[in-house]
Amino acid sequence: MTVSIEPAIEAPSVKRPSRAVRLTIVIYLAALVGAQASEAFFSTELSVACYSALLIALLNHFAFAPASAELRAALAGVALVPLLRIAALGLPQQFVPSVYWEALPAALVLATVFALRRIVEPGGIGLPVRASSQRGWGAKPQVALLLLSPPFALASAFALSGLDLANAQPGRPATTAAVLVVAAFSGMTLEVVFRGVIQPALVALCGWQGVALTSLLYAGLFIGSASWFVVLLAATTGVVWGSFSALTHKVSGVAASHALFAMTWAALF
After folding, report:
1. How far is CA 236 from CA 105, 128, 168, 231, in A?
2. In sequence order, which residues have a C-beta less than 8 Å from that of residue 17 and are 6 or more positions away?
3. Per-residue b/e over 220-250, b at no fewer than 16 CB within 10 Å?
4. Cα angle: 167, vertex 169, 171; to 5 degrees
5. Does the predicted TM-score (pTM) go above 0.85?
6. In sequence order, what are the residues at sequence separation of 6 or more whose Cβ sits closer than 8 angstroms to the Cβ of residue 204?
7. Positive or negative, the Cα torsion across 45, 49, 50, 51?
8. Which of 48, 190, 68 is nearest to 124 (CA)?
């Protein structure tokens, strides 16, 4: 079961969902960013309560309220965000080595993505694919993006320390292979969730604005870092990865790029 983002972008004859439908999903997105902000400015407990309420609302809206196929796909995709945050806060336990804590919510959400592909009706949710009748970008731009990821991660890390925005300074710590593997897995999972599921659904609703909305939602995950630089970096990388995914109709390239970016960052900090 797949979702193709081409009709939402390139076919003007397709009837666009109404403004009320688009407004509904934008309100959910704003509420999710607010839930993340509540963790940074108030308490983790309040954030979990907000995310739980939003997850219930999204699932009930998906299951019971009359909705178009585009809105149902967006509701199912966006529901992955509160699930990811609740899992990130609740799954880590003392009996599990801390190096694997990031992998636990990533694995749960990744499994949920593939489960949703079986639950939602055809055309409802899935990874973007390129139609055989269209010519996507060649491999060169994706390779270039892949090669630029580690240098950009290095530059970002040293910019963060140069602006004195973090106590940790980039260096050459004794990073284990497990840390690098978990960082790569988490980065790839985020791309599957945001650029593989959420973005195609939002593009189907809002056109190219869906790329920006997905990037803002992705950046909202990093509000808890209490660093405007990290949030801005997340928004910037989100736009870059989102644009590449939308133009190439593939997730593999941006997933590999995010994995390299995360591994470089983990190796430095």
Report:
1. 24, 21, 22, 9
2. 68, 70, 71, 204, 205
3. bbbbbeeeeebbebbbebbbbbbbbbbebbb
4. 160
5. no
6. 3, 5, 7, 8, 17, 70, 73, 74, 210
7. positive
8. 68
Distances from the Cα of 152 to the Cα of 146, 148, 225, 237, 250, angstroms: 10, 6, 19, 10, 21
The pair of structure tokens assigned to 86 is 């609740």
Residue 11: other Cβ atoms inside 10 A: 8
Residuewise pLDDT in 10s, the chain (269 residues): 444 444 444 434 456 667 788 888 999 999 999 998 888 888 888 999 999 999 999 999 988 877 777 888 889 899 999 999 988 888 777 777 777 778 888 888 988 888 877 666 544 455 544 433 345 555 666 667 766 776 767 777 667 666 554 455 555 554 578 888 888 999 999 999 999 999 999 998 888 899 999 999 999 988 877 778 889 999 999 999 999 998 888 888 899 999 998 888 887 76
For residue 218, the one-letter residue type is Y
As a whole number of angstroms, the distance between CA 229 and CA 162 comes to: 11
